[in-house]
Write a structure and sequence with these properties.
Length: 194
């Protein structure tokens, strides 16, 4: 079974592309959703985050999302530390999940696939690209946050050029791009790669 990583900048449309792959019968593991889950359920992760950032990073309902985002998106060292704590655990979950699947290939959707070096464990990688202005508009509307906050998050990720250069395939998700034919073509190329 091939392991395929799918990434792209914030607001590029990774989840939309993942859903199309799922409709083709490809199992998709969403690393970002898994991260959000284990932050609130994995005792080792909770302990490590409290140790790093203080007990007040958690409330009785789980992680204080606003406080947590304020820390990691304003401090590169804090973001690096969080990634060191969370991503090895997400890798373990992904590998266990992948072993349980009966498929020709599986996809791991991850916002920071290249930044976390998870791409090194993949057989192939797909990048979803959208122009920065379009991404900013999508995220400000989707998450109801300011342009400045979106730009902060963009700066914490690899540039579009870096992702395009590192990926085996790039799917362009701009308003004038037809993504279904690109996804089908990529799907067929992956099947032929086997």
């Amino acid at each position: 079974m091939l392991k395929v990583g799918l990434t792209g900048g914030i607001g590029s449309g990774k989840t939309l592309v993942s859903r199309v792959f799922e409709s083709l019968g490809v199992p998709v593991f969403n690393a970002d959703n898994e991260s959000k889950k284990i932050i609130n359920t994995d005792k080792k992760i909770i302990s490590a985050l409290k140790s790093e950032f203080g007990d007040e990073i958690y409330t009785s309902d789980g992680i204080n999302r606003q406080k947590f985002a304020g820390i990691i998106f304003n401090d590169v060292n804090a973001l690096t530390q969080v990634n060191k704590i969370i991503h090895p655990r997400v890798r373990e979950y992904f590998l266990l999940w992948a072993k349980s699947k009966k498929a020709v290939y599986v996809i791991e959707e991850a916002a920071i696939l290249f930044e976390s070096k998870a791409n090194l464990e993949m057989d192939l990688t797909i990048n979803v690209h959208a122009d920065e202005l379009l991404r900013i508009n999508r995220v400000t509307q989707r998450d109801n946050i300011t342009k400045q906050l979106v730009l902060q998050r963009i700066r914490n990720q690899f540039s579009d050029e870096e992702r395009i250069n590192l990926a085996d395939f790039t799917i362009f998700n701009n308003e004038n791009s037809m993504i279904i034919p690109q996804i089908l073509e990529t799907h067929n190329k992956i099947l032929n790669h086997i």
